[in-house]
Amino acid sequence: MSKILFVHSSARGSASASRQLAEHFKAAAISAGAAVSEIDLAAHKPQPLDEATLGAFFTPVEQQSAEQAQLVKASEQYIEGLLAADTLVISAGMYNFSLPSTLKAYLDQTLRAGRTFRYTENGPEGLVKGKKAVLILTMGGVYSQAPMSSMDFLTPYLKSVLGFIGITDVEVVLAEGLAVGPENAAAAIENAKQQLDDLAA
Fold it and tell me: pTM for this structure?
């Protein structure tokens, strides 16, 4: 049985298009026999990095103070959840051409030297291997083609950071143009749902 970790990042709750698509995919995946776990970054916001947390990250476990161990706890939980999954599903809307701040904070807590990547004499090496990722992305405008494609800092960023930690098998399911008009939005959502059904099967 496959294990899927869903990471929801929209601040809009049930009104979020990316969350609705993720819920559609979750239902299809469960019907196909997958085991599902979830992280709702809007309900449980990750702590942005600060000096104390970074210090704790770079302190060996056996040397950490009680305070440092507490600062690292959430990061360890995120990493263990990721390592336990076969597939990572990230749902995100484009916020000001990029990703929601809560998702950035989650990734900052998850991308850690010695845990999800390491530095070698040949350069950095991702340690999260043999996994897949599905990016469920929504955008108000159309960014998959010119003239706005150069303004999409969401898709390439997520693919780059996932590749950095070793997840190179990444499927992007995009529903864009949601603010262009109701007909376009409905068609984009329906197309994305079909792609997700195919992936779940």
Answer: 0.95
